[in-house]
Design brief:
367 residues; alpha/beta; Cytochrome Bc1 Complex, Chain D, domain 2; Oxidized Rhodanese, domain 1; 2 domains; two-stranded antiparallel ribbon; 15 helices; globular; binds heme C
Length: 367
């Protein structure tokens, strides 16, 4: 601790002496811009963004359209986070949140080149310059940081960092990927045009370090697992309980079925089709038994021919309804009247104690 405090004192003196010549209080100058996209890469990236990301992050990258998905154009994010703080959540997702992985390696729709291009496209669209940050740890008093956190941050980020109206700061995948300087920069500068205000004028430099160190102390060695992809169901496997009776759901607002009604129908072995409308990488991680991956961005002209019109179809997602709503509206426009959306979404379903099928987890050691 003594060392940590000395460092803070030393570091704050250093900052106050040097401040006028630094670009930003905690950066060491600028990074060169990354490679420029070709017109073709720009075109594909813009289309990929609208197809895969706009549902939650918004058509103009403004964020907070569904499920508190963060802004993908804020200055502080793009000056501190390119490429990895963008590329990694995009590729692998954030476990336990609506943010799924979009890289083909984990069951998503994009190639490695496409995820890099989309990262640089987002950067170019943000119009900011990258700053240089060190990857060193930010030292601080963790206990003091915790009390700052509970007072200043928990109302939005949750008492346990689980995220209430804001990203989950205790999320292991996020902590594994984001550096301390990246986190501290977000706290200092906030995220422009979002509820995340800049704390550099509200908290002392030492308390910002303390709360950063506290957040880091919550990372407990999360590791990427080696992903073994499951086989996707074929059309002859789409109907759950093909010999069962039809369920008789009472839909709220003509659209929604509750988790308890769906579970009762599963237990009674009713005949249904369950559509998991999220990005398929998260279907790979965990899904409701018998559901088929039917992503919100799928081309219905290709996928719809395999769906029966005379069987009750229930769509679900995790955001908690946005993706499923959009799929069901499109299906209804094509004459699929027996369609419904799971009200609580799949996280709500799990929180109520209903079962999901999980992927076999294999560690880094492989087979
Ligand atoms: C009024 C609600 C609110 C409060 C209070 C708040 N935040 Fe935030 N915070 C947000 C929102 C919303 C975002 C996401 C903003 C965006 O990018 O769209 C965010 C983003 C962040 C991020 C960036 C996360 C990432 O992965 O990019 C960090 C770090 C963060 N907050 C830390 C804190 C800390 C530490 C405190 C307390 C000192 C705090 N926040 C207080 C709402 C809040
Ligand atoms: C179903 C909704 C949804 C979709 C679709 C989605 N995201 Fe997200 N995204 C989220 C949520 C929610 C979070 C915040 C998760 C958390 O709590 O940490 C997030 C976080 C992120 C982050 C981290 C941002 C930060 O401030 O740390 C990036 C980058 C991101 N998403 C990029 C993308 C890209 C690129 C796409 C399209 C390929 C995409 N997302 C599609 C919901 C979504």
């Amino acid at each position: 601790m003594a060392r940590a405090l000395t460092t803070i004192v030393f570091f704050s003196c250093f900052i106050s002496l040097m401040a006028p010549t630094l670009v930003s209080a905690n950066s060491n100058g600028k990074l060169p811009p990354p490679r420029k996209l070709t017109p073709q890469q720009t075109k594909v990236s813009a289309a990929n963004y609208q197809r895969y990301c706009s549902l939650c992050h918004g058509k103009d990258r403004q964020g907070h359209v569904n499920d508190h998905a963060p802004s993908l154009r804020s200055k502080s994010l793009f000056e501190s986070g390119v490429p990895h703080a963008i590329l990694r959540p995009m590729s692998y997702g954030r476990e336990g949140t609506a943010m799924g992985g979009y890289l083909d390696e984990v069951g998503g729709p994009m190639t490695l080149d496409e995820t890099w291009d989309l990262t640089y496209w987002l950067y170019e669209m943000s119009g900011v310059e990258r700053l240089k940050f060190s990857t060193k740890a930010v030292l601080g008093d963790i206990k003091r940081g915790e009390s700052v956190y509970q007072k200043q941050c928990s109302s939005c980020h949750g008492v346990k960092g689980e995220g209430v109206t804001a990203p989950a700061l205790g999320n292991q995948s996020a902590l594994a990927h984001n550096t301390d300087e990246f986190i501290r920069h977000a706290i200092r500068k906030g995220r422009q045009d979002t509820p995340m205000v800049a704390f550099e004028d509200k908290l002392s430099a030492a308390d910002i370090d303390n709360v950063t160190a506290f957040l880091r102390s919550k990372a407990s060695g999360w590791k990427m697992e080696k992903v073994v992809l499951q086989k996707l169901p074929t059309p002859d496997q789409y109907i759950v309980n093909p010999k069962g009776k039809h369920p008789n759901f009472k839909l709220t607002d003509g659209m929604y079925v509750s988790s308890s009604d769906l579970n009762a129908a599963m237990v009674a072995k009713r005949k249904m089709v369950l559509l998991d409308t999220r990005v398929p990488s998260v279907w790979q991680t965990a899904h409701i038994a018998g559901s088929i991956p039917f992503p919100y961005y799928a081309d219905l002209d290709e996928t719809v021919k395999d769906l029966p019109k005379d069987v009750q179809i229930i769509a679900y997602c995790s955001c908690p309804r946005a993706a499923a709503d959009s799929v069901v509206r499109k299906l209804r426009a094509r004459g699929f009247a027996n369609t419904a959306v799971l009200w609580e979404g799949v996280f709500g379903w799990q929180n109520l104690g209903y079962p999901v099928v999980r992927r076999d987890v294999r560690g880094d050691t492989g087979e």
